Amino acid sequence: MAVADSSGNRRLTRQLSLGGMLTAIILLILTAKLYLPTADLALLALTSLGLAIAVIELGIKPALVVYLAAGLLSLAWPGLAAAFPFIIVTGPYPLIRALIDKRSGRIMAIILKLVAGNILIALAAALFAWPDVAALADRYTFFWILMPFAVQAGLLIYDYALSLLIQFYVARVKNEK
Predict the structure, then answer these.
(1) The CATH number of the domain where 9 resides is what?
(2) pTM for this prediction
(3) What is the number of domains present in the chain?
(4) Percent over 70 (pLDDT), the chain
(5) Which candidate, 83, 142, 91, 153, places its Cα nearest to that of 118?
(6) What are the φ/ψ torsions at residue 142 (nearest 5 degrees)?
(7) CA end-to-end span of the chain, whole Å?
(8) Where are the alpha helices (DSSP H) in 104-142?
(9) From 49's CA, which of 57, 58, 101, 127 has a CA 20 to 30 Å away?
(10) What range does the domain containing 119 cover?
């Protein structure tokens, strides 16, 4: 009985330590976002990779705990301005993506990921950028025509970049353990 208990404790210790390290890495990347403003999108993609690694190594529920811990801690440091894209868009997206990829075929997964991404971006715009979006729409009448296409293109590029980062992790890091 003690051997099985020891193995379970080792697994739990590994999960806790890896989850804590991934949370710390996500916080460091969000802090770097303050000092490297031109690298915002790349750094946010790396925060998504941190959560994708949590899903791969730990599973969806522990990855959700990593997301919640990183999200709550990022509100305190580096603050809401740096953290809100992670909390609303690039944090939940890898978790939603993992659920969609597990349960859907390729074409349906792309459609569902676009729908989920649109909902997350609309939520972010409604909560934090609505006055700016409305001002752009008033100034440029073609804004409402171009914006949906730009959002879809951005989501597809982001998902593709995240896929490449995940493939790199699995091929180079996970398989060398």
Answers:
(1) 1.10.1760
(2) 0.90
(3) 1
(4) 97
(5) 153
(6) -80, 0
(7) 28
(8) 106-124, 130-139
(9) 127
(10) 2-176
| Span 47-95, pLDDT tens digits | 999 999 999 999 999 999 999 999 999 999 999 988 999 999 999 999 9
Asked whether the beta carbons of 121 and 159 are under 8 A apart, the reply is no
Q: What is the Cα Rg of the chain in Å? A: 18
Low-confidence ranges of the chain (pLDDT < 50): 1
Give dist(CA 126, CA 89) in Å, integer: 12
Amino acid 95 reads L
What is the distance between the alpha carbons of residues 6 and 107, in angstroms, rounded to a whole number?
44
For residue 37, the tally of other CB atoms under 10 A from its CB is: 9
> b/e map of 142-174 (b: 16 or more CB within 10 Å)?
eeeeeeeeebeeebeebbeebeebbeebeeeee
CB atoms within 10 A of CB 134: 12
- Residue position matching structure tokens 């697994």: 11
